[in-house]
Amino acid sequence: MVTAPRVFNEVLLEVRRISLSFGGVKALTDISFDIRKGEIRAIIGPNGAGKTSMLNVINGFYHPQEGEVIFKGETRRAMRPHKAAKQGIARTFQNVALFKGMSTLDNIMTGRLLKMRSNVLLQALYWGPNEREEIEHRAFCEEIIDFLEIQAIRKTPVGKLPYGLQKRVELARALAMEPELLLLDEPMAGMNVEEKEDMSRFILDVNDHFGTTIALIEHDMGVVMDLSDRVVVLDYGRKLADGTPDEVRSNQEVVDAYLGVAH
Amino acid sequence: MLYRETGQFKTTYRADQAIFPILQDKIGVLAILAFAVFVVPFAADNYLLETILVPVLVFSLAAIGLNILTGYCGQLSLGTGGFMACGAFFSYKLATAFPDLNLILVFLLAGLGTSVVGVLFGLPSLRIKGFYLAVATLAAQFFLIWVFNKFGWWTNDSPSGVISAPPREVLGFVVTSSEAHPISKYLFLVVLVAVLALVAKNLVRSRIGRSWMAIRDMDIAAEIIGIRPLVAKLSAFAVSSFYIGIAGGLWAFIYTGSVEALAFQIDRSFQVLFMVILGGLGSILGSFLGAIFIVLLPIALNVTMLAIDPTFSVALVSDMEFMLFGALIIFFLIVEPHGLARLWQIGKEKLRLWPFPY
């Protein structure tokens, strides 16, 4: 177990006074927090608290009416998701969003898309630089496949895979992008205990091995408290608390709103 | 027993990513190509060449084009006929305006011209999907045919609106117009279609192909990964129209020799769409199978029905054709949405185990 809390100083991403509403519904109100380089940051909160909306703001799906997102010192307000991808933000989805008709390997290879350079003519001939590039990126994808222990399914169409493996392939695809910031939206939803243990191990390994900064949304409190370095708590689109797992756990407001009031 | 990949170990990624990683496939395709080039021209009679093999090859190319757009990139299009007309009339204008231009260049340039048109009509795909996009491409279909009918410039002011392919040579053999020998037409087509099919296969297994499939399977996730929907969709429209345009040129110049805009009406679009659906969405092989199937079905039906009872009327035979098509389309959509190519794949998987149960 972690003995002393890890300390991180460099801010990778900062959201500042974000407000987002859809018509009359206020999804997020005046939320600020930061994610520091190298840490595992958890975002928790009851259903409908605005966690996924927050991730969508960070990677450019939603454009908040107010506030700003600062990534690597660069401020931005409105941005398309593919630009966020280019900057180094990858994510997985709450309900698996894989390319169902493609094999595991092809899914992971699409994650390398931004890193590939050869032009269409070379691709049409599949010759020289294009073939070298394909092989080079294949080798990288195979490393990720080894890392996540999915060698046996590399040629299987992902539509045929069980749910737990699909989640793992989605993580593999996100890792193939070599992201600086990895957003995981409920990586363990619907998994049994063994699968959750596996996934937790992979998340810790990714953080440790690649040094990837991770922001995750999760409902399993045990997982959140064990994995994360810092936790931010949302409720009804407002920020309730922000701090280490221990601080958050002892915060009375959080206990009341999220974990339930003792009767 | 014959079709087994056991023991074929790949020790490099290069070998594993080869176009036909399984030895039997490689031998099979080479054998079919060799047969098509060296045996068929001498064994087949003119009827077989002109009414079956030539249209099969032309339609295969059109089906590959539509398959890239609909099967790989997931953008439904009913404008195939219009784009084929583009290819045909562009080829005609190029060939008559520049008589010295090499025929292959004529087709390639006509294909490029068609891709520009395709991209223009593909622009709505950035906002609309599925059936709505199909309706938008339908507009392309009607608009393009109207343009080629309306303005005499396209037909060099031919009073009937019919264009006749001028005789053109490739490597010293006349391949277009009625002067061409069926064998030279056929050989020219086989080589051209084989090369273009190889290019299509390479594209779909490269970066650009993966970006098309990503857009098809889940456009939101594709965007998250860094695929720009604009680029992916429009490149699919461009490549698809390029193929369909060349197919249109080949139709006018080599298959029929003379053609009018009405030959490329909405029926043609549906015909190619049926080939793609029956052959297999998202499969290059399926494009060929679909083309073979749809060209052969009416002929086979005709022959069998007349064999059963020579007194059957022509109208009855053609009605039967419609009924059978309809039934087959429904059958495939329900039972095997991935078409003949998928059946072939299942067959291969069974063959890997045969004669053992598992």
From TrEMBL, chain A:
Transmembrane in keyword set: no
GO MF entries: ATP binding; ATP hydrolysis activity
Pfam families linked to this entry: ABC_tran (PF00005), BCA_ABC_TP_C (PF12399)
Keywords: ATP-binding, Nucleotide-binding, Transport
Presence of the UniProt keyword Transport in the record: yes
SUPFAM superfamilies for the chain: P-loop containing nucleoside triphosphate hydrolases (SSF52540)
Gene Ontology terms: cellular component: plasma membrane
InterPro entries: AAA+_ATPase, ABC_AA/LPS_Transport, ABC_transporter-like_ATP-bd, BCA_ABC_TP_C, P-loop_NTPase
Domain ABC transporter: start-end pairs: 13-261
Name of this protein: Amino acid/amide ABC transporter ATP-binding protein 1, HAAT family
Protein source organism: Tistlia consotensis USBA 355
From TrEMBL, chain B:
Entry membrane topology: Multi-pass membrane protein
Listed CDD domains: TM_PBP1_LivM_like
Main location: membrane
Organism domain of life: Bacteria
Any one Gene Ontology cellular component term annotated for this protein: plasma membrane
GO terms, molecular function: branched-chain amino acid transmembrane transporter activity
Subcellular location: Cell membrane
Transmembrane region(s): 27-44, 50-69, 76-95, 101-123, 130-148, 186-204, 234-254, 274-300, 312-335
Listed InterPro entries: ABC_transp_permease, LivM-like
Name of the protein: Amino acid/amide ABC transporter membrane protein 2, HAAT family
